[in-house]
Amino acid sequence: MKFIKNDLEQRLHFIDESLQYKDYKPFFTDMWDAVVLAGKHALLPFDLFQSLQRTYSWMKYYNSELESSNRNLDEKVVKELLEDVRKSIDKSLRKLRETDDLKVYDEWP
User: Is the pLDDT of residue 35 over 90?
Assistant: First the structure.
């Protein structure tokens, strides 16, 4: 759980830097992909899994939009997408904190 929380917090820094320097690059979603491929997502409460899945889906959507508009990048659209990703990350981090406070899962090895 800690590495997911850390990954999401790093993504917030990534968004801040992207907006500050107007350097729009894709998100790496390999952390979440590894969690799913390893089957660790089954250890999460469903509402937390659902929140995390939405968050990483927003990142992948941003990546696909960035890739498809590579030549004609509409900065306003990119900024709006990054804000949507940020909101989703914030929501997932709140859900992670709630879950952590309730101790409804066992720590992963």
Answer: no
